[in-house]
Structures
1.
Amino acid sequence: MSQEKTFKPYVAPEENVKEFTLKSILLGCLFGIIFGAATVYLALKAGLTVSASIPIAVIAITLGRRFFKTTILENNIIQTTGSAGESIAAGVVFTLPGFLFLSANENGVSNGESYFSYMTILVLAIFGGLLGTLMMIPLRKSLIVKEHDTLPYPEGTACGEVLKAGEKGGDFAKTAFLGLGAAFIYAMLQKVFHVISESPEYLTSQKNKYLPSAKLSGEITPEYLGVGYIIGPKISGVLVAGGVLSWLALIPLLSTIVPPDAVATQLVKLGMLSSLTDAGGVGNWSPVTHTFNDYSIALYQAYVKQIGAGAVAAGGFITLVKTIPTIISSFKDSLGSIKDKSNASEVPRTEKDLSFKIVIIGSIGLVLLMALLPQLPGQNFFNKLLIGVLVVVFGAFFVTVSSRIVGLIGSSNNPISGMTIATIMGTCLIFIAVGWTGKVYEPMALVVGGMICIAAANAGATSQDLKTGYIVGATPRNQQIALFIGAIVSSIVIGYTVHLLDTPTAEMRAAGIHHAIGSTTFSAPQAILMATLDKGILTFNLDWQFVLVGVFIAITMELCGIKSLSFAVGAYLPLSTTLPIFIGGAIRSIVDHKQKQRGENLSAEEEELGKGNLFATGLVAGGAVAGVIVALLTVNENIANGLKKISVEHGLSKIIGHGGYAVLGVLFFATLGFILYRIGIQKSKPLDIEK
């Protein structure tokens, strides 16, 4: 029996519950603006983002229901609308600042600087956001509905459980909010007071006889622990396996055979080190001793990340090929719905999507607008028309890949930069094939990569939102309209925030620095990498051998019967990300084993609302909320300086040493994991499936 026939959403299709209302849209837009601005800051500063769907859902429950009397479906629309801001901001910041770092023109200014304007950023952000949502309309049924059991969409599922727990109240809400409270306290101790180390690590020396420059590390955050518990041991195990290959096999191997000067030269080529005679850069290069302070991260950025990008691109392509039958059937269903209007009224409310005509007309409209708008790079109409076509083609591909990736590991770990790298590489190769080489084409290639990055990021968030909607019984069409609104509104503020943060200080201007982005204040690591790849390919200066190593690693995994995309994502991401996720998955494995020993046979609904799952949901929500709050607070320089004063990291390190400080953090994380285990093995009361 198919999942479509057996699954029962929280709100039944025949129920008439308030959903798409003015207050839900306005509140969603407000949260989209706030979280979008916070994401811009965080991504420029550290090259990472925090998922906003669950924090917004928690806020919607605690504020919306109390002060605005919102229903569960209105709360879902609030988080759906608001989540667009965070995802679009991530795509924008990871790529579009790259305009500042393209090849210099005859005046010594970046060839793309003129396109780093508010209007260009606004247009690309809106177009990319709309594209990500458009392409998910025909994919919803195949990925969200038909694969409900095989694609967990951890944040979407967690968000749905948060919304349901808020409705049910009692023990359900209590367990979820207990996790949220524990995670929030833990995160405050970690991110504000720095009692807990954020990323303890053990690094062997470059001269180690057995395993040189190997690094074992973990971002011991509550949200990673919760995500690992939700996705389970199998997926988290494959993920961490990719990380083990990169950080405990490839990097020690490269450390043995590649001299430091060669690594430094490669980093200079990638723009991550100014020159061989200048100290600093990735890994903290010393031109005097010709060594790196952290040889592991230097090798990762110089070689392994390119290998990982090649693996992600190949894994994504393999995944797409394997899912073509499902995608074709989904598109056939969508086309059939256009022709057959006789039974439109018979379609259940929870299965009503926007018409497939919207996807076709919207895609054609985006291509034509990109060809006509003067804000976008291109020498003539046909140049821009090709850009538009490439955006739609790559968009259809990577939106599918992005949706599947976040279905496995969540939006916070979506390697959109890897997909963007693949897009830029593909675009540049097409340009070379038609004879478009030279500096003038670099901004055009970056536009394609930027829009795909935004579309892939928004598609990942959209998938999580649609999963949440599927669980709670929302109307897909209302969610899709809310996503369009959220994309447009948040893009207006995202572009403004980027330019606000790019404003140089008086000291910078005195030193001849015209952009704060790219300085030590806002390093924009992802955008610099994209620009470097763009220049490298169009000037025939890219190391294809590393990319192809990744491609064949993915093929090898697939031939061994392992899902290559999950493994490739693990190889691309830092081990510090996948290791704590794996720990969460391992705890879930132990809990499941204990439940089987007790002879417990839980239904799907009982598993979703089990104490362990609810507590893990709270961990994800609490950690994410705390991360966003800290990001918002640190935007203000005075507050940021104040937070530094209350940090106890220096004092603790002085008392117990740096090693002791790291061990203390691990003990805190182990304690949180033990609490998750104890709550997970508690017997849950039988659920009232009919609510």
2.
Amino acid sequence: MHRRDFIKYSAAFGAFSALPLWSRAALAADRPALPVPELLLPDARNTVRLTAQAGKTVFGGKMATTWGYNGSLLGPALRLTQGESVTVDIHNSLAEETTVHWHGLEVPGDVDGGPQGVIAAGGRRTVKFTPQQRAATCWFHPHQHGKTGHQVAMGLAGLVLIEDIESRKLMLPKQWGIDDIPLIIQDKRFGADGEIDYKLDVMSAAVGWFGDMLLCNGVNYPQHANPRGWLRLRLLNGCNARSLNIAASDNRPLYVIASDGGLLAEPVKVTELPLLMGERFEVLVDTSDGKPFDIVTLPVKQMGMTVAPFDQPQPIVRIQPVRIASSGELPDKLVEVPALPALDGLTERWLQLMMDPMLDMMGMQALMKKYGDKAMAGMSMGGHGNMGGHGGMKHGGMDHGKMNHGQMGQGFDFHNANKINGKAFDMATPAFAAQKGKYEKWTISGEGDMMLHPFHIHGTQFRILSENGQPVAAHRQGWKDTVRVEGARSEVLVRFDHEASKEHAYMAHCHLLEHEDTGMMLGFTVA
């Protein structure tokens, strides 16, 4: 940071800290204050220590068992610097195995933390890597096969902030926890005993696990006091299965400055920002008018996610500007994003996402039995026409009206019912080998299946060529690690700059976590 910037930011921080206690208390009188994850930097030996641990957290007045990194729920924000090596010592103090996956980081397969990187209960793992990629907001979470959904639902998730020279030169809001705040958005469901009510069953294997309470940084509808001016929001959809549609309650514009893999070429003005599971976007919002407003998620058209209260806009966080002025700016230009290379002569791969028709039918029946027609997001079980070609409604010529739910369930293995190219995940057998440093064009198809599949690829930040059969929206033309697939084809341009062996293959999978846990994932090597 330049000296003049340091002085300016320090002055603003000092003014904020000098607010009288009664003023700060008044801001939080009706709503809890937004918790901000600790900013964790490597120590003098370039080492960071993480402990996956169990704890207790209060939700709705009841105490629940939760899991977190270095705490009871969620985790810190690791701040790393491009080109600087870091060693991460991970201790698993949980009573079961876990892994730590560096989602969005371009690191070798042996430190990526996929399902092969198991850390035994009570065990430890040390990984060392040097981030070479652009400044970005990434995250880390478990990737234990068959249990990823459960472990994330219990609270295991943290942020990774990568900085580089270009990002430091920009006069973006940079005061962590003041005008630069992360919003980790998740939904949860709790049982009558107050505990997190997670089940991997036929219904969740089909549509995903979803909740009826929305949390931001682990708290229901908190508020944040920020200096008037530009406020930077680092958005993460940390939900297991729920897509979001972010907006301001008063319809003020959001200026998208970064996507999964880093800064865009220039800000993109939007009033609504769809956010898939696992995706990150950074936005700037102008609060110089001093008026309070909410960041909300608008209703989405996704199977299972239209159940109340999510049939109405839901508040995520209350933004309450205070009198002092902020110092960050919205630049006209951000960074250079290279033009797409020529696509001639590239290796091309086809990945067909498929759900077992039996799972599809059983999952839909279970969803309707529990929540009624409102859960179907405008789609009908009765006729194929209304389903828009839903995979499970068409395959095999089944007479759905004559099916008996109980008989269908006998002996059905839903744990391997979601597939890519006709195969459920097999950790021992990578699907293909990619060549290091060479561009490839991947087509991911959800044709014949109308379920939402946010598709994530490890070890790379790619460029989207087309998304779900449509041209790429302006704010999605930068670096991405997740692409939307929903009943159509998406094309991405990928390149892997690190190696991944058979023993430590990269993963490509649906980031609806229950789809991933029940087979919609494959491994691949890079050499």
3.
Amino acid sequence: MLDQRYRWKNKHIREHISVLDGNVSPTILLTNAKYLNQTFRAWMTANIWIYDDRIIYVGDQYPDNVDNCEIVDCSGLLLVPGYIEPHAHPFQVYNPHSLAHYASQYGTTTLINDNMVLALQMEKNKAFSFMREMHNSPTSMYWWCRFDAQTEIRDEEQIFSHSNVKSWLEHDAVIQGGELTGWPKLLDGDDMMLHWMQEAKRMRKKVEGHFPGASEKTLAKMMLFGADCDHEAMTGEEIYNRLMQGYMVSLRHSSIRPDLPVLLDEIHQLGITMYDKFMFTTDGASPHFYENGIIDNMIRIAIKKGVPVIDAYNMGTINVARYYNVEHLHGNIATGRVANINFLTDERNPTPVSVLAKGQWVKRDGKDTNAYEQLNWVDMGFEPLKLDWELSMDDFQFSMPFGIKMENAVITKPYSVSIDANYDELSCDHDECFFMLIDKHGKWRINTMLKGFSNKVQGLASSYSTTGDIILIGKNKYEMMNAFHRMVELGGGIVISEERRIVLEIPLPLSGVMSDHSVERLVEEDKELLAYLKTKGYAYGDPIYTLLFFSSTHLPYIRITQQGMYDVMNKMILFPTIMR
């Protein structure tokens, strides 16, 4: 659990009252503040008193005591609440701390985070200690509780045991169950998942769906089971169907689904002009996609697409807070709320020039104040990847009769292998590569062929995957081995080898799945990876998600997993992994 169950202890609340009584000075006073008041749906002007991390008063009065107060004249600025990302995947090469820091510079001061990596990579108590550390950052950090691994893993019944899931659900920082990537199991009669959903509802916590392509009847069934929201609508009609069944709808704009402009056009064509049941999400985009901002960018797009300005801001603030039952803390500028405030120069430009997060300046007059302290990652359980086993050329045996064909960046289908793979190097005249998934503990492997990834990549090694196991791809077995060895030296990472030379690397020393670099630097590294792979025949736009989703069984049609090659539609292992 967190160190304190209540957001503010009794003594803190007494201090807040003393500020109103004039016995204690506010820490910050915002005067002449034109701010968005969502109760009246209007821009209003007031004085805003802040003490430490809380808004103490909003109105016409001026404090009697300003002895220890920073007074800021907000004339010429517009103030809006800090933005909320309701569906963050904070482990997409970046880490939760670096993402929080980066997001704050664009006004997103609250993140509601996926716990998948914590559940899969860490012992529960260590994960909770990490969450406690994140709680102390300027960003308000909340978490999900996953009910399944999103892939076929070994010992799933231990990782997602009833006691583990119940402990996660009961955690004060966890405010939703899901996302429900394993919902077909629920339809097939998985009563344990249904029980966990029941527990989430009993605790007044939300349940997030994951229902791409779901029919109207399936949506109705999932609502009856207890789902509250879904972020997978890809057309205006799918949004309409979700609204009709009572869902909150997250409008997505991510690196693999940059859908927001089309979604807004199509809901307007359908005559939908109410926005209270909408919120925004970037759904854990790859670093390069965040170059132009996060929730602020989605608000900007919405305004350009004709959404009324106040509604556009509400979709990134108060709508989210109301949905998650945290309106008393977040989503608006009002007495008693956490002091998360963005300072804008224009209502049509939602990227702030200054940002307060928990009453701290994290951005001031366009400059990062470096309010996010460096972390000791090793102490928190995120050590560099250490392999106590050796890869040998005997592991590079490829005789499977069919392989995996990429339809796009993340969808893969089976195909019949017709080339002779009994060579150390494949021709660059086709787009088939050697493809391996190897247990990070060295106990098993699965070897097949991958079509459609590249026709020229000689050797790529990645410890970045759904489960943290090792992916090897390439035309040349020796280059794949060379990339693997460099990845081990780095303590994890994404590495490409050509002509026995390392030509590109992204170190991931945090358990082999995350970087300790800033998101700004990762934006450039991600763009470099994409640009390089495109010169080698990669035809898509998101290699980070390609690597991540090779094992993800919430997507069709065929996946490589810890259990073996898996047929998603028929829910069966086609070829088991080979023990080493």
4.
Amino acid sequence: MHKATFLSAALTSLLLGACASTAPQSSTAAAVSVDVPTVAHPAGETPQWWYRDGAARAAGNGAMAGKAKNVILFLGDGMSLTTVAAARILEGQRHGSSGEENLLSWERFPATAFSKTYNTDSQTPDSAGTMTAITTGVKTHMGAIGVSAGTRSDCSDSLSKGLLTWLQLADSAGLATGIVSTARLTHATPAATYAHSPERNWENDTDLPEAAKAAGCVDIAQQLLSTSRYGKGPLVALGGGRGQFTTVNEEDPEYADKVGLRLDGRNLVAEWQAAHPQGAYVWNADQLKAAANAPALLGLFEPDHMQYEQDRPKDRGGEPSLAELTRAAIANLSKHQDGYVLMVEGARIDHANHSGNAARALGDTIAMSDAVKAAVEATSADDTLIIVTADHSHTLNFVGYPARGNPILGKVKDKGGEDGAGKLDLARDGLGLPYTTLSYANGPGYTGASNQQPAGPKKFPHGPSSFEPAVGRPDLTHVDTEHPDYMQEALVPAKAESHGGEDVGIWARGPGSKAVRGTMEQNTIYHLIVQATPRLRARLCELGTCDAQGVPVELPQPRQFERKAP
């Protein structure tokens, strides 16, 4: 080696070594140590312990160094890592590439981590308990909305267990707040940003048992309006669920054969309009565009959940995409100079996975990628923290040895399996039959006969109540497995496919995002947000929940954050 070359190589080596040695220090330079008591698991896991434990992890990762003015949390409901990988490939293939090299919008973010999703009472969680962990900093039981762990059906038990959500905290701190979802706005994920209920299914007054009403619980739809006690309430609320807000005597504006669900005589849409006389209520895409300058915005685009992205173009009323909802929300909230927080849920990823229909699950994941891209384009990484994550996983499998570029929704074609010694052809199982790259461990795609469809491949939608044992596997040679209505085979028969219990991803960019790393408990996400946002942190400290280092470590009491009566 020439002397000059040697010196150059040595200098490069020293510089790289210096970078390698200083990089971890720079990412943890703002780390703050918080003591957490050792407890017996799970018996010692109190709400206060969960809160302090999450605060300690976020502070130890350096979240206190964040200077975010705005926060946007994207929640892909049921968006397992397998769902992300398959959607990434499908999007790439739709654009004419082989697909594997593609990245969804958030996969370009600089910070990544894993989230442990279990509930306090279940290894494999549900959306209510998981989203409550994300919004309150406290893990809780399956089915819980904004309350700490207790008995799911016991209203009285829950009344003293309400938790302050970061949406309510932001409202109390003078930030603008917003909620966007493709589910009903009263469904588990959006509800966990503003409501308090031990049972996620108490969405309207007809769902609420008489005993719960007598004990003092109110339905979730009502709570969307009453959460304004913390400030102004959500200035943007866009999603589905018109039926939860209107009465049985009111005809739906889009479907003449449908009416509302409420029996208490309360039209909550009208009540919202009375509380926001300059605001706009909309139920279709054209109205949403026309309401661009409204100071407050309520959009209910379906009586139930919004359409899957696959079916949205056929919606009779004209339904906006998740990206369009996101743009509208950011345009409204960004008018507020003090900053904002926004939650955006790609809800129907979960529903399609439950239905055993990968095409719609992946399609809605791609739609959420478009929404994240829209948010990136509408904001700056200098002042806006964007976090993308999921609440839980699903049982979607990505299997076999398909050749590079093989259609992700297609049948596996390989060159002789792992050995790769043959020519490209359909892969065969032990019975000599072809199989698809994607399948489910359980669900309605089971190929035995059901009370709704005959034996063989199943077609979406399929929600059976009984099955007969399958006799072998169907021959898929001439079946179009890439059709949007094809349902992937499931090993175990079930009316609905179940959630999975493995970790999900967290991706982040913007102020405070460097703290997003490693494997963390899901409730830590709340603490990452509040610690990285000075106004949220200051509001918590103002009411005495912070330690001497300024870290919010004490469980906040919701009533303290409500507006004072004039």
